[in-house]
Amino acid sequence: MSDETLTADPPAESASHRGSGGGGLDRATMFRWGVRLVIAILVLTPPFYFEPSWLRVGQYVMIGAVGAIGLTLLTGQAGQLSLAHPFFMFVGGTTYCVLGSEDAPGRVGFGLPSLLALFGAIAVTAALGLAFAPVSSRVRGVYLGVATLALVYVALYLGQQWSSLSGGTARGRPSPDLNLFGLHTLKAEPEITIFGTEFQREHRVYLVFALILLIAYLLAQGAVRGRPGRAWRAIRDSESAASALGVNVKRVRAEVFAISSAYAGLAGVMTVMWYRLLKPDESEFAGTYSIVVAIAFLAMILIGGLGSVGGAIAGAALVFGLPGMLTLTIGGSEMFGTSGAHAITPTIFTAFVYGAAIILVVLFEPGGLAALGRRLKMTFARTQLGSTLLSPKGS
Amino acid sequence: METFIQVVVNGLGKGAVYALLALGFVIIFKASGVLNFAHGSFVLLGGYVAFRTQEDLGFVLSAILGVATAGLGALFIERVLVARRPLADPIALALLTIGVDVILTEEIIRRIGLDIPFLGSPYDGKPVHVGEVTFFRTHLIALAVGAVLVTLFFLAFRYTGWGVAMRAQAENREAAALMGIRRGRVTGTAWVIAGVLAGVAVLFLATQDFSGSGLSRSTHAIALVAFPAAIIGGLDSTGGAILGGAIVGLTEALSAQYISFEFSKVAVYIVMLAVLIVAPSGIFGTRERTRV
């Protein structure tokens, strides 16, 4: 049996086949490339036009996107609910700092090259994800969701207690500078100027994050379209059927958990680079590695459409992007005329928006933004404008 | 020895409150197959109404009003949102309640603002001395109230028509519907009861003795500790919720006393993970069986 006959992503492709006869596939392909071009322009041009504060919003969205891709593979593709993302982010960030920075009084450091530290962080988080296998391969559904919540508390506790690694809740520890083949990202060295724009720290971090996100996206997309993705969806839909078809259910469950953890670990490294500081949380319900963040990631993948890699990125743009954008456009603490202790801050407003988005998605569009996108693609492929624009051969 | 007795009683007092919350999770899970992540916000809702009306109505009336609001709030969420999707995937419904929780919690926390109120005014902070041992009054009252409510619930569950209908529905939803059991009514009642239990729980949660902090985001977080309680006992076992509550309360109190306060938060979850490795559906939970 060839791989092609089983390739998933059927709704879009089969629909466009049916919809418009011979020219349909071309149009859908053209549409996809058109979208990719627009995204490439949207992602690559900001460093030349936007203020560093806006670039920081973009960077933060990309952190969310990398984490959300990992979670959508686990929850959307393989059907395992997880709230453990903040734990793996914390471990990833800590590993990066420990491996990548020099020994200092009261702080352990190995002083490895930063790129090695980055891969070390990914490897350690993946290994920890595998170590969770006794739980992740046995426990199912909502039980697993609550079981993974335990790890958020473990991260909190370790962060508070193990200050030689984490730097402690009071001070934290600085992020190592990611040095890509002599090109520093957290320092503006060596100086680079492209098209008259001087590439400062925020510009560099932005482009490095974009590169990381691109790699993360391509790997996930490849896995979803290939053999691993078929195994994940098989165990999601029915474990007994999957097992009858020769899928090693236990192993696949553990593997996808490890992969998802590695993505979260990578997002953790990015978080540390973004803050330029690793700082463990002081409480479990507010902070960078808290339950709130675990829920924010679930919101991203649900709003984006469970299981959709592109949708996860769109969800991250909403959940992680909106507070920053509102702060920059409307300004800090005051919105809608309220101020002081009861003010509707951008963070609260974003919580309202994504809370409502979750409810609306579950009630009315279980496919999320990804399904809306697919629908848009089909509508576009059918319209006159679409056919003249996208089908040079005519149909 | 005195310290040990004191710690055990305090642990059981906390456990009673966790049991009320865990019972709420279990009832909702049995009736509609939903893990209700919005439980923490029902807790806050009841607490907020009680706090707003406390000055005008006095403790008892405001407490009743708060409890009633939490119950009606839960019913509203069930009727307007959950009942619309009876066939949806359980994980999707769990996520739906996360959406509800995010909105309700943010709004209530925003309304409370910076002055964090304590709710247990008549009993909070007045210790009781029995010989050498000193107990928190909050824990003793919580234990008594918990015992009464849980007994009432089990009597109703065992002997009333609603209890029979509820058990039938938990057993097999289609069959129950075919036998003429009104699903909407049973499920609605289940959510009201869960909301009421959450409303009672907050009167103990937001006290000096219980958490050291008033009605705030941390109350919501403490309500999450009832998750492990429900899971340890088994999500579909009402008796398990009570056992789970006791285990969680004791674990927390003992580890806070003999190891450290910071460790007590993790200890609960470590116990839960240990239980799950041995029994993936909790102690009394129904095992998932696959037929090939």
Automatic annotation (TrEMBL), chain A:
Chief location bin: membrane
Domain of life: Bacteria
Residue ranges of the region described as Disordered: 1-23
This protein's UniProt keywords: Cell membrane, Membrane, Transmembrane, Transmembrane helix
Compartment annotation: Cell membrane
Segments passing through the bilayer: 33-50, 56-74, 113-135, 142-159, 205-224, 256-275, 287-306, 313-331, 351-372
Ranges in coiled-coil conformation: none
Keyword Membrane among record annotations: yes
Keyword Membrane listed: yes
Membrane-related topology note: Multi-pass membrane protein
InterPro entries given in the database record: ABC_transp_permease, LivM-like
This protein's name: Branched-chain amino acid ABC transporter permease
Automatic annotation (TrEMBL), chain B:
Keyword Transport among UniProt keywords: yes
InterPro entries linked to this entry: ABC_transp_permease, BCAA_transport_permease
Subcellular location: Cell membrane
One of the Pfam families matching this protein, by short name: BPD_transp_2
Superkingdom: Bacteria
Membrane topology type: Multi-pass membrane protein
Keywords: Amino-acid transport, Cell membrane, Membrane, Transmembrane, Transmembrane helix, Transport
Chief location bin: membrane
Transmembrane segments: 16-45, 57-77, 140-165, 186-206, 218-235, 242-260, 266-286
Family: Belongs to the binding-protein-dependent transport system permease family. LivHM subfamily.
Name used for this protein in its record: Branched-chain amino acid ABC transporter permease
Organism this protein belongs to: Sporichthya brevicatena
